[in-house]
């Protein structure tokens, strides 16, 4: 669980779009650069990506 922050000027991401965004997680999670992840909402996968950078 966490909060996604879209880049300035981006209000919505549609299927087929590629975007770089920040994710602030509510709880600590073990992640490494290059790890794949899925974004789920209401039991459905609504996005997927790769961790490119870990921010402290």
Automatic annotation (TrEMBL):
<dbReference type="InterPro" id="IPR050055">
    <property type="entry name" value="EF-Tu_GTPase"/>
</dbReference>
<keyword id="KW-0648">Protein biosynthesis</keyword>
<dbReference type="GO" id="GO:0005525">
    <property type="term" value="F:GTP binding"/>
</dbReference>
<dbReference type="Pfam" id="PF03143">
    <property type="entry name" value="GTP_EFTU_D3"/>
</dbReference>
<dbReference type="GO" id="GO:0005829">
    <property type="term" value="C:cytosol"/>
</dbReference>
<keyword id="KW-0251">Elongation factor</keyword>
<keyword id="KW-0342">GTP-binding</keyword>
<dbReference type="InterPro" id="IPR004160">
    <property type="entry name" value="Transl_elong_EFTu/EF1A_C"/>
</dbReference>
<feature type="domain" description="Translation elongation factor EFTu/EF1A C-terminal">
    <location>
        <begin position="10"/>
        <end position="54"/>
    </location>
</feature>
<dbReference type="GO" id="GO:0003746">
    <property type="term" value="F:translation elongation factor activity"/>
</dbReference>
<protein>
    <submittedName>
        <fullName>Elongation factor Tu</fullName>
    </submittedName>
</protein>
<keyword id="KW-0547">Nucleotide-binding</keyword>
<dbReference type="InterPro" id="IPR009001">
    <property type="entry name" value="Transl_elong_EF1A/Init_IF2_C"/>
</dbReference>
């Amino acid at each position: 669980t966490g909060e996604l922050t879209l880049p300035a000027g981006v209000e919505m991401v549609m299927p087929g779009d590629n975007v770089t965004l920040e994710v602030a997680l509510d709880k600590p999670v073990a992640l490494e650069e290059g790890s794949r992840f899925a974004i789920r909402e209401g039991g459905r996968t609504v996005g997927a990506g790769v961790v490119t950078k870990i921010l402290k």
